Amino acid sequence: MTDLSANMIIERKSLHLELVERLRPLIIEGQMAPDKKVPEKALCEQFSVSRTPLREALKVLAAEGLVRLEPNRGAWVTAITIEEVEEVFPVLAVLEGLSGELACEKISDEEITSIRSLHDEMIQSYHDRDLATYFKLNQEIHLGILSAARNETLANSSMSLSARMLRARYAANMSDERWSEAVDEHNEIIRTLEARDGKKLASILIVHMKNKKSSVLRWLQNPPDVEAV
User: Fold this and answer.
1) Which residues contact 205 (CB under 8 A, 6 or more apart)?
2) What CATH number labels 12-77?
3) Which residues, in sequence order, are CB contacts of 95 under 8 Å at separation 6+?
4) Residue ranges of the domains in the chain?
């Protein structure tokens, strides 16, 4: 008789990875403020977990650059510096451009349809002034283009650098002017992707990242007077 028990087991995501998914948005959206200590005890109580999975989650977030671990002092939310933005964004821009060019060569019709659907949802979230949803869909669009490039080395490099800038990229979208400009740029991105014009899409994505860098620098130099909760 065939043993069906092995096939019936449902694999559950590790608890610490579930915590990573819960904590990352708190940092990106500013609910855990930069340069503040991570309240480990409060988080354990909030999520009904022990210190062990929480600390494993914090190690993952530290690898992403969202927190820093200090011996005998615990975990602290990292702050983005102007120097780091100046260093990272030009590299990200090149990687984004390359992903767009390669994607136009290899993307399937089904992938384009999926990205177009995400784009339409993102535009609706813009009209609804729902920044959190807009940002989530925005990231999924960029990841969709990156995935369509079919280049694991490029994907790993881009995702690693992008994770370090997520908090700043989210906050920089708070400017109404920049948000409107970003939407216009995304409209052009999706049209060019659908036309499979790799060279043009590469140029658009590079400019898109340069504009994002400028908005992040403005945000860092003149941070809004908003207190994180």
Assistant:
1) 93, 96, 97, 99, 100, 145, 189
2) 1.10.10.10
3) 154, 157, 158, 161
4) 12-77, 82-221
Task: Specify which residues 70 forms β-bridges with.
Answer: 74
Closest CA to 66 of 99, 31, 94: 31
User: Could you tell me how far CA 155 lies from the centroid of its own chain?
Assistant: 13
Tokens (6 digits) for 150: 């079919």
Tokens 């087991």 correspond to: 9
Number of H helices, E strands in the chain: 10, 2
Domains 12-77 and 82-221 share a fold: no
CA triple 70-171-148, angle to 5 deg: 95
* β-strand partners of 37: 76
Q: What is the pLDDT of residues 84-127, one digit of tens each?
A: 999 999 999 999 999 999 999 999 999 999 999 999 999 999 99
**CB-based burial, 133-159: b 16+ in 10 Å, e otherwise:** ebbbbbbbbbbbbbbbbebeebbeebe
| Residue range 82-221 in CATH 1.20.120.530 | yes
Q: Read out DSSP for 119-174?
A: HHHHHHHHHTT-HHHHHHHHHHHHHHHHHHT--HHHHHHHHHHHHHHHHHHHHHTT
- For residue 37, the 8-state DSSP code is B
pTM of the model: 0.79
Q: What does DSSP assign to residue 10?
A: P
